[in-house]
Each structure stands twice: as C-alpha cells, then as structure tokens.
Design goal:
The chain has 30 helices and no strands. It is mostly helical. Among the domains are: 1-44; 347-480, Leucine-rich Repeat Variant (Alpha Horseshoe). The longest helix has 29 residues, at 19-47. The N and C termini lie far apart (133 Å).
Length: 480
C-alpha cells in the first residue's frame, strides 16, 4: 500500500497540470472545512446546559459575518448561522462586547429587510432578544437604524410583527432619547395601520402593542397632538378586548401615561368616551390596576374643571366610596390625592363632595398614623375650606368634624398639622362671617383651643404663625 503522504503528494502534483481542477479541489476542501466549523459551533451551543455566559470568539463571529453577507450563501446556511446566533443571544448573562466588536449585529439588521420570511423571522427574533440587553448594545443598534428597520416589517406576518413591536417596546423602556427616535420613526402610524386590519385581535398582539405604547408614552414629555391622537386611537381600538388583568393593566398604564404627559390627553379621553372604561378599571381591576386607574382619574380631574365635572357626573364619588374600604394602605395616598383634586376644583365640586357620604368616611379616617396619608387627608380639608361657599363651611362645622380634628391634631406631622390648622382658621372665619356664635361655643367645647396653645410653642415657624392667627381670631370672636 502506498503511504498516505505519497498519495497526497501525487494527488497535488496531478492537479498542478490542471489549474481549474486545483481551484475546484481547494473550494471543496474549504467548503467541507466551513461545514465542520458550523456543525462544531452549533453542537457546542446546543449541547451547553450551564447557565453561565456562552461567549462566541471573534473568529466564530467573523465566519458568521461572511456567511450572512456573502451573495453565494444559500438559505440553509444563512438560517443555520442565524439559529446559532439566536441560541447565543437568548441565554442569560451574555457578554455583548464581542457582538459590538464584530459587525454581525449590523448584518442581522440588514437581513430583517430580506425577501424571505423565514430569514426575516429568525433575524427579528435575534434583534428582539438583543433589544432586551444592556445600554451598550441597544445604543449600537439604534445608531445603525434598528428602529426604522423594525418599523418597516410591522405587518409582514403576525410572528414577525410581534417580534418587531416587542423589540421596539424593549427599546422604549431604555431611555427618553430612544423614545424620541421611536416617535419620529413612524411607529405609531404603522402600528395603527396594522391593528386596523383586525376584526378580532390576537391576545399576544393586543398585549405587546399596549405594552410597547405604554413604555413609549411613559417616557415621553410634551407629546404632540398627532401622537396623542394616535395613542388615543390605540386605546379606543382595544377598549373592548382587554378582559384579562394583564391586558387591563397595560391599557390603563398607557391611558395614564397619555394623560400625564400630554395636555390634550384628558380632552381626547373624554372625546373618545374612554372615561367609563377608566372608571371600570377602578371598580373591577386588581390593586395595581386600581392604582393606575385612580392616578388617571386624578390627572383628568386636575386637567380642567369641565373634565372634573364630567367624572363626577359619571359617579366617581360613589365609585371611590365603594372602593376605599377594599384598598390596601399603600394605595390610599392616590385615593386621597384624587379627592383633594376634586376638593380644590370649583365651589360646585366642593359642594358635591361635602354633601356626599364619602366626606363622612374621610372624617372618620383622620386618625391615620402614616404622615403621608395625614398630609393628603388634611389637604382635602384645607382645599374644601378654600373653595366651599359659606353655607357649606357652616355645614362642615355642624357635622362636628372639628371634634375629630382636635383629637388627632397632636399626632400629625408638621405638614399635616399645618393643613389642619389652616382648616380650623377658615372655619373660624366662616363663623365670624355668619354670625353663628352658637357654633363658637361648640368649637370651644371640642378642646381644640388647648391644642392650638401647644402649636404656638412649636419649633416650626409656619405652625407657630397659623396657630397665633387662630388664637387671635378666637380672642376677637369671644370678645364680640
């Protein structure tokens, strides 16, 4: 038998006479080598079961880059490489530095614009996973136009669209600057065009669309009227298909972001008849949904007296009264903030609150130990004394709420105590203006004067000042 080395030598020398054969042989050898490298790499990635990072070396990435960019690469080769990259980027704790040093990610971004749906789908999955990465990789992709590319594939098919919207949602959660890029990319326009094609929305599309829009709107400031109308249209399209708490939460989070960051938000919500849907979330949603829904209600009330009156006509006071006993303490601050917005509106709104059973419930809640809740509750009372007419202030005094104030005044922290003292002062002004001196005796019988004397010795200058004014008012009234 001829030794192997001699056979190889004879074979090489025979090919030298025919250069074209030599090229063919060299190509075949390189092709077999390439296949072995790919198979080995795929085996290494697929067989790894550890939760530690799997790092692709630069030579692997260079090879991937050549396959992805070569016109001679067949579809199966491209898909094989994309699947290998997908396996790498989907693992926890990966090191993105090697991806940034190579141009593989850029090649994947380009492939999203391919004509083959299978290639686009694999590439979109990779980009979706990468958008969940750190700031370095997201910045790298933004600079290379990933946002515009993902927007362009919305509507190709459901899986690709879902990946694209999800990726944009991940980017939107990154920073305000990236949200500006997304806003200017035409994302909302293309998303609305895609959503308008459905008669019945798939669950995943509803969730990912609401989630992405909520991420976007919560970071943006000063939303223009065009984007505000587009976001309101998204809310309007999906208001009847959000039965599950997961969907309701994202819907109400989007509504709250729109109301908070856009001056036109409240008017648009009213115009599209979305108020009842927000109030429905207050009544029926889980606690975190109720919290966002109550914040949305508070912003709408604060936006204008007209919108506040619309919400009152929709029964917001009844709804808060029914919801308040069921809410955990961490959500009470939001409720009291909403009520203080109503109390600080117009005299008509203050009148409706004072004569509602909710007001009696608030009076019974004045013994809150939490300083933040004390502050919000006392602010409700102070706002009422500022906005309420004389007859309504007299009604408050007749309800003997000053008895409760005298009981809790000493336990309140400075901010809450200051608000309660201002409430007492305005009540005395109302007595003075009404000539109801019989009410003065009732006030004196509550023991509040002794608490006022203590407040005059406070180290807080604001409390000293208002307590002094109350004391002087008492003296002038009593002298009369």
């Amino acid at each position: 038998m001829i030794p192997t080395a001699i056979r190889v030598q004879n074979r090489n020398s025979s090919f030298q006479a025919y250069p074209e054969c030599n090229d063919t042989e060299r190509y075949a050898v390189n092709l077999r080598k390439q296949k072995r490298v790919e198979a080995s790499l795929l085996k290494r990635i697929k067989s790894s079961r550890e939760l530690t990072p799997v790092n692709l070396c630069l030579s692997d990435l260079d090879h991937f880059s050549k396959v992805l960019s070569s016109p001679g690469s067949c579809k199966s080769e491209v898909l094989q490489v994309l699947q290998a990259i997908k396996g790498f980027v989907s693992r926890p704790g990966i090191d993105y530095s090697s991806l940034i040093l190579s141009d593989v990610v850029y090649k994947v971004i380009i492939l999203v614009m391919d004509k083959d749906y299978e290639v686009i789908k694999e590439a979109s999955i990779i980009l979706c996973n990468l958008t969940y990465g750190n700031t370095d990789i997201t910045t790298y992709m933004i600079e290379r136009g990933v946002t515009e590319v993902l927007v362009k594939v919305i509507g190709l098919d459901q899986d690709i669209t879902e990946n694209a919207i999800w990726g944009i949602g991940n980017l939107a959660a990154e920073s305000k600057e990236i949200c500006e890029v997304i806003k200017n990319s035409g994302f909302l326009k293309d998303l609305l065009r895609y959503l308008s094609e459905f008669n019945e929305f798939p669950f995943k599309i509803v969730w990912v669309a609401l989630w992405s829009c909520a991420n976007l709107v919560c970071k943006l400031k000063g939303i223009r009227s065009l984007e505000a109308k587009q976001l309101t249209e998204v809310l309007n399209l999906m208001k009847y298909c959000i039965g599950e708490d997961k969907l309701v939460f994202e819907w109400i989070r989007l509504a709250y972001g729109l109301l908070k960051n856009c001056e036109l938000g409240a008017d648009l919500m009213v115009e599209h008849n979305l108020v009842s849907r927000v109030l429905g979330a207050v009544k029926e949603g889980e606690c975190r949904v109720k919290d966002y829904a109550l914040q949305a209600v508070g912003v709408m009330i604060y936006s204008s007296n007209k919108n506040a009156q619309i919400l009152i006509s929709f029964g917001v006071l009844d709804l808060i009264y029914e919801t308040l006993p069921m809410l955990p303490s961490q959500y009470l601050k939001t409720v009291y903030w909403v009520i203080s917005n109503i109390a600080g509106g117009t005299a008509a709104q203050a009148h409706q609150l004072i004569h509602h059973v909710l007001f009696s419930q608030l009076a019974l809640s004045l013994d809150q130990p939490d300083p933040d809740l004390q502050k919000e509750l006392s602010f409700v009372l102070f706002n009422l004394t500022i906005k309420a007419c004389l007859e309504d202030l007299i009604h408050i005094i007749e309800q003997k709420i000053l008895v409760k104030v005298s009981e809790v005044l000493a336990s309140y922290a400075n901010d809450g105590k200051h608000n309660l003292l201002r409430f007492v002062y305005h009540c005395l002004l109302a007595i003075s203006q009404s000539d109801r001196m019989d009410l003065l005796q009732e006030v004196l019988s509550t023991g509040v004067l002794a608490e006022i004397e203590e407040c005059r010795l406070s180290k807080d200058e604001k409390i000293q000042r208002i307590a002094g004014l109350i004391f002087l008012k008492f003296k002038s009234l009593y002298g009369e």
